[in-house]
Design goal:
Bound molecules: nicotinamide-adenine-dinucleotide, (2R)-2-hydroxypentanedioic acid
Number of helices: 25
Protein name: D-3-phosphoglycerate dehydrogenase
Number of strands: 24
Strand order of the largest sheet: 16-15-14-17-18-19-20
Keywords: Amino-acid biosynthesis, NAD, Oxidoreductase, Serine biosynthesis
CATH superfamily of the largest domain: HAD superfamily/HAD-like
Structural class: alpha/beta
Pathway: Amino-acid biosynthesis; L-serine biosynthesis; L-serine from 3-phospho-D-glycerate: step 1/3
Function: Catalyzes the reversible oxidation of 3-phospho-D-glycerate to 3-phosphonooxypyruvate, the first step of the phosphorylated L-serine biosynthesis pathway. Also catalyzes the reversible oxidation of 2-hydroxyglutarate to 2-oxoglutarate.
Distance between the termini: 8 Å
GO molecular function, one term: phosphoglycerate dehydrogenase activity
CATH architecture of the largest domain: 3-Layer(aba) Sandwich
């Protein structure tokens, strides 16, 4: 943890909407009016007055007077307010509690709010009453709040300026707050800098006048090289989301404090190369190609999230060698694909792709020709992974006889029969459905020769990856009538956005069901994916946990005890020994160490005691063969 510059500047921190997430008087009104029919109306009016005062629209003393006139609060409500405010301290202030405890003499809370509720809240952070400068209420004999002490300088217009003058602070003074009155301290020359604090509210008029904008208190500490709880402010972590994942994904990243940018549709390689600079987390679906060129331009990339199952669009080894962890959602849309496949089997067996368009054109073609039940038919599943095996169970439940072929040894479910070769499966199946992964070796897995092996009139489904089927060869057997129909959801060339047209030899062929890569596009699947992937990535960023990464050695780490060093290196002999030598030379106590390697990289996590010298970090960064190194405080 870096040592602070000496001497530390004085920090003048606002209370309402800065130290806490809310405005104290608004909350007090909410408490005092509980159960009253006019609660919403009065609280709304008080909030509006607060806002007008904070943005500089209404002079402060007028805003305060009008608010208190509307407020039917009593002394006993203040205790309830204090409890509520203790639970609403700003997240980044809570996170950096140790900073306040360590430097209480340098922090002043200067607020136009009221001492009665501010003092007990900030006391929990080690800030004494004599460093709280705020208004005070007046009460009548029955304990009802009647107004405020007009002798207090903070109750006047320009009150914060008057208060700062009285304080006569020497040396650097920095003002932090969300309101116009906080900026006025700087305008009056009583602070060297004004930081607009936007973690809770963002007021344009205030932000426009700030020396710096602070999305969190971490950012203030980071900019000023002051001790902080996080190793890096979360608001500096940029996320770029492509291809419209469910909005929940952006929401999850934003809640974590990251900056999120979204680009609808995909980006081609050139466009992504342009946009990847400065991005820490890239979120994509199946279209975006993360190539070696993209990785070369990615100067800050920590992780890639594939908001889908397939990861063949990502240079996984390239990512690994650059220390970029990749996460996907391996089963969030499995069920959706299975349901689509089952539906397609029935639709093709009943020749619906031909019948439905005719009906739309007014043609009534009632006939049983070429239509059959799926009960008792042989379903050949190629690729018996998550989707293939679940489809096996569902297909048996509707009376189909299941056969499967997989290059890996797989648990046979129900009565499914394993085929030793692809040919064995193709020759026997009435319906063949493809669920292999998108590895390059699967290009044209089903070509002219394989299609010729299929039974006359058989059906083919491809919901896996476009390059798995030789499309011109498929079109030929459909035209010739050798196959009875096909359902295709994935294509070698898919439009980048919904505005591009779709071109394929399969267009216009009989009994062919074409869908725009929507196997996993259901509300349930997209929502699951949008939570699953950000959760994995945030866990990796926050703890180093790589469980379920598709390209990193998987480590499920125990809870962090003190500081955690995360070291990714080329897998060559001796790196771990060098790391430990550095630690030993500096007498750093290792609390736990976890190492996993694969053929390219080593991933080592070292938990160490809180006490260590700064040079240790510099030396660890210099260990030969280091790819990435970071410290979690
Ligand atoms: N259409 C869509 O919207 C959609 C949605 C989700 C997944 N998918 C795709 O579905 C496919 C399967 O997904 P999953 O989750 O079941 O993957 P998985 O990794 O669980 O299963 C794939 C299986 O295919 C097997 N396999 C690979 N190559 C093979 C080959 N040549 N012959 C036989 N078996 C082979 C593997 O051993 C594995 O068991 C993937 O390509 C995925 O990208 C498409
Ligand atoms: O939604 C997508 O873009 C891809 C869906 C699917 O192909 C997957 O791999 O999960």
């Amino acid at each position: 943890m870096p040592e602070p510059a000496q001497p530390l500047p004085y920090l003048i921190i606002d209370f309402d909407s800065t130290f806490t997430q809310v405005e104290g008087l608004d909350e007090l009104a909410d408490i005092a009016l509980q159960g009253q029919p006019n609660r919403e109306e009065v609280v709304g009016a008080i909030r509006a007055l607060t806002d007008r005062g904070m943005s500089g629209e209404l002079n402060f003393s007028e805003s305060l007077k009008q608010r208190l006139e509307l407020l039917p609060a009593r002394r006993e409500h203040i205790a309830l307010l204090v409890e509520r405010l203790k639970g609403k301290v700003s997240e980044s202030i809570i996170r950096n509690r140790s900073f306040f405890e360590r430097f209480p003499g340098r922090v002043y809370i200067v607020s136009s709010g009221f001492r009665e509720f501010i003092e007990p809240v900030v006391a929990e952070f080690g800030i004494d009453a004599d460093h709280v400068l705020a208004n005070t209420f007046t009460f009548d004999a029955d304990g009802r709040i009647t107004g405020f002490d007009t002798n207090n300088v903070l109750s006047r217009d320009g009150g914060k300026i008057l208060q700062l003058r009285e304080l006569e602070l020497e040396g650097d003074v920095y003002a932090l707050g969300d309101g116009y009155t906080d900026y006025q301290i700087r305008e009056a020359g009583l602070a060297n800098r004004f930081y607009a604090f936007t973690e809770n509210v963002h007021r344009e008029a205030v932000v426009a006048r700030a020396d710096e904008v602070l999305p969190s208190f971490d950012e203030f500490l980071y900019q000023n090289k002051l001790p902080m709880t996080l190793s890096y402010p979360k608001n500096r972590i940029k996320v770029l989301l492509l291809e419209n994942p469910d909005p929940r994904a952006a929401e999850m990243f934003r809640q974590e404090g990251y900056q999120v940018d979204s680009v609808p549709g995909g980006l081609d390689e050139d466009e992504l190369v342009q946009q990847i600079e400065g991005v820490s987390i890239l979120g994509i679906r199946s279209k975006t190609q993360v190539t070696a060129r993209v990785l070369e331009a990615a100067n800050r990339l920590i992780a890639v999230g594939a908001f889908c199952i397939g990861t063949n669009q990502i240079d996984l080894t390239g990512c690994m060698k650059k220390g970029v962890a990749v996460f996907n959602a391996p089963f969030s849309n499995t069920r959706s694909v299975v349901e689509l496949a089952l539906g397609e089997i029935i639709m093709l067996a009943r020749r619906i792709p031909e019948k439905s368009p005719k009906m739309h054109e007014g043609e009534w073609d009632k006939s049983a020709k070429g239509a059959f039940e799926i009960r008792g038919k042989k379903l050949g599943i190629v690729g018996y992974g998550n989707i293939g095996s679940q489809l096996s169970v569902v297909a048996e439940a509707v009376g189909m006889q299941v056969m499967y072929y997989d290059v890996a040894e797989k648990l046979q479910l129900g009565n499914a029969v394993k085929c030793r070769t692809l040919e064995e499966l193709l020759r026997q199946s009435d319906i063949v459905t493809l669920h292999v992964d998108g590895r390059p070796a699967n290009t044209n897995l089903i070509g002219a020769a394989e299609l010729a092996m299929m039974k006359p009139g058989a059906l083919l489904l491809n919901n896996s990856r476009g390059h798995v089927v030789d499309v011109p060869a498929l079109a030929a057997v459909l035209r010739s009538g050798h196959l009875g129909g096909a359902a295709v959801d994935v294509f070698p060339h898919e439009p980048k956005t919904n505005h591009e047209s779709f071109e394929s030899e399969l267009r216009g062929l009989p009994n062919v069901l074409l869908t725009p890569h929507i196997g996993g596009s259901t509300a349930e699947a997209q929502r699951n994916i949008a939570e699953f992937v950000p959760e994995r990535i945030m866990q990796y960023v926050n703890t180093g946990n790589t469980q379920q990464s598709v390209n990193f050695p998987n480590i499920q780490l125990p809870e962090q005890q003190a500081h955690r060093l995360i070291h990714i290196h080329h897998n060559v002999p001796g790196v771990l020994a060098r790391i430990n030598n550095v630690l030993a030379q500096h007498h750093v106590n290792i609390l736990g160490q976890y190492l996993k390697t694969n053929e390219h990289i080593g991933y080592v996590i070292t938990d160490i005691d809180k006490q260590y010298e700064q040079e240790v970090i510099g030396e660890l960064r210099k260990v030969e063969h280091t790819i990435k190194f970071r410290v979690l405080y």
